[in-house]
Amino acid sequence: MPLEPRNKIAAIWFCFFLSGFSGLIYEVVWVRQFELVFGTGTYAVGAILTAFMAGLSLGGLAGGKADKALQPLKIYGWLEISIGVYALLFPTFFKFVQSFYLFLETQRSLSVFESQIIRFLSAFALLILPTTMMGATLPFLSKVVSREPADHRWSVGRLYGVNTAGAVLGVLFSGFWILPHFGQARTLFAAAFLNLGLGAAVLWLNQNSGIHFQNFSPWKTKTPPESQTPWNLALIIAALSGYSAMTYESCYNRVLAMTLGGSVYAFTTMLATFLAGLGFGALAVTGFWSFFQKKTGAWLAAILVLAGVTALFTGFIFDRLGYLFLWLYQTASSFGFELAQSQRVIQFFVSAAVMMPTALFLGSVFPLAIQMDPSNRIGHWVGKVYSWNTLGAIGGAFLASFIFIPLLGIELTLLTGAFAHLAAGVWLGTSLLHSSRQGRWIWVTVILAGVLLLFSFLPGWNLHRMAIGPYLQIKYLRGDLPFAHFIDGRVEGTDLLFYREGVSTTVTVEKNRATGSIFLSNNGKPEASSSTDLATQHLLSDLPLLWFASSRGRQVRQAAVIGLASGITSGAALQHPMDQLTTVELEPFMLPAAALFHQYNFQVLENPKFQLVLDDGRHFLEIHPGKFDVIISEPSNPWISGVSNLFTRESFETSHRGLTDGGVFCQWVQVYEMKLSDLKAIVRTFHSVFPNTYLFGVPPRPGEKAPASDVVLLGSVQPLRPSLPRFDELIKGPRIERSLDQIGIHESGDLVSLLRMGPVEISKFEKAGPLNTDDNALIEFSTPLSLYEETYYDDMMEIRKYQCDPTAEISGGSKADLKRLMRRVSEDLFPYWRRDLAIQLREKAERL
Questions:
Q1: How far apart are CA 516 and CA 674, in angstroms?
Q2: Element (H, E) at 764
Q3: Is it the case that residue 806 has pLDDT exceeding 60?
Q4: Which residues of 634-645 are buried (b: 16+ CB within 10 A; e: fewer)?
Q5: Model pTM above 0.70
Q6: DSSP letter for each residue of 484-519
Q7: Inter-residue contact 307 to 237 (CB < 8 Å)
Q8: Buried b (16+ CB within 10 A) or exposed e, 676-697
């Protein structure tokens, strides 16, 4: 039975809502998949998003042909079906492009620029077709809704708002539910079948609606003469608005990552909040269209100015977001909610405080710009506006992430976006007043100069306050302590030595005034220090290098360290004999930060054997033609999105391929803020690639009695059984001995006693369970949920159950040497670990 026109248009809105829903699922999944091949660096992600948005822009232009189509709804249906079919074939295409890309990169040594070009072309080749089809959907549906009866209240702007609302739901659904539960492959297939079903429903709707489009004259709201403006100015406004939108989003995401953390859930909340603001802004304008319709141009000029002003004033709260975060936490606590329960709500409110005001105005721009249509060809005009808006967004994303933030900083980068909005609004406003071109330039110059002057007199951000990482400091806040006093006390207790907003993260170095120790942080997350983390940073080099050399009977020739940070691990590694050490670091500003640790890292940056490569660690190992005797992976915590990619089975397999025969892979793993099942999943995944896996503890930190909350995994295909005489010989080397003295290691027994499990015990400890893979991202989605839980004791007690006899993994040595080793291991185990085992070792030593 034919549908009523009103029911038909409602069905169209629902279809486009689902289209936005599936479109954002595709974007989320495809970006994640490309990151795994191209690396998690900002340049790689930027190349992917640029290719994605370029396709949307081309689709907007292609959709301009909608005005010539007699059945635009039918074309829209086939577009949705085509997108679904391509999504089903995408894994096959992706593998082909991946193989071709890796072939090119492994055949010759490419410069950073050449590598970026290949990444962009690879992403462009895969994404241009589906994203072009996605970009064309809005113009064709605009043709449909614009040919409805004249008394119908719905508009193209509302269609855009409904699509954005679907995108918000797609982000939330994929980030919080379907990806954690079903993985990337099944999520992609589900979205593809949704598009196929959606396209089929639209084709049925077109066949059975009983509507003939030629019966309706084109719909177009006539604008009063005072609101009309040249079409080219409207397109420039759309482009500037797109530029500002992506500039704001880039700045907001960077600031919020320092306040909320860099977990996948935090980024999901940020993206959903920004899109929600865009959608609400569009729906608000179209919901009160009779009010905005009278003076469309004037309202557009006013909203552009308000968007710029709002962005400027929003920026002034950035260094006070920690206050808001802690206040929300204390408020939630007063109602009996733990932080683990309320953190998602807190993340949303903080994100909304930063993003929502500006995003509301940004969402209002598009539907108002649509009304500047200089002709009756609504599909053509919508396609043009959409295309120019997307082109501006490409420019904003590129300039903000790669140029402005690293060179100017977040604060001035935000100012460029506000300037673009203010300039567009003032220019449009003066054009409506029939001002001359020269007069418009004068007005724009005066307004922007005034804003710049005002900006120069206002106080700048308190960078130290921004650098403390409220999302982590919250664990130390007592319920009765005012949050403002807590933050101010934290700032006053340290000196900020270094602060740089880099391409991928904000790098800071602080010095504790009371102890004199210095520590390095990324986005407020401490990564290295000269005191509490010193033993871990040394042992990450000393354990694998000594175990390799004493087990294989030769020195290490080539070694690699993933992550520079303070440079202490790399510096400790170069105290061992080797030909060259390659350190891979993603963030360029980590280099000057590491220079501040020169008295702790053996001045590694000046060592001729030290080579720094600026790249994603996993990508580097994938394309590096040589092999390493030892690879040390020292990333940040696995709950951080992107870093988690270094803990998957596929990443471990990449590292395995980068090792020589008999090579050793070393992986740092946290024991704090990670539930036991996640720790076992990491160990299980590691062991699935390296059959001979050994787990080591870290001795207590200065002033503490309990073992440090870190473990070190060593993995190899062949067993690791160090020769005790060789071990003793190596550890007494002058440079190695001086290095180990810094962390209280004086003889071989001190290191051997750190061995907690060998391959046999590892098999019992890990038990059955899922592996952490690129597809399921088990650790990335699970570990943030225990960020505010105290898991150290339970994890350590479980490890304690499987404590092995460390001396059983050592070969060779005289009875006197073995007796000395057993006594030393017994002494180290007795105070805080396994007293029963320590007593047994002491008795065994006496019987020798």
A1: 30
A2: helix 759-766
A3: yes
A4: bbbbbbbbbbbb
A5: yes
A6: HHHHHHHHHTEEEEEEEE-SS-EEEEEEETTT--EE
A7: no
A8: bebbbbbbbbbbebbebbbbbb
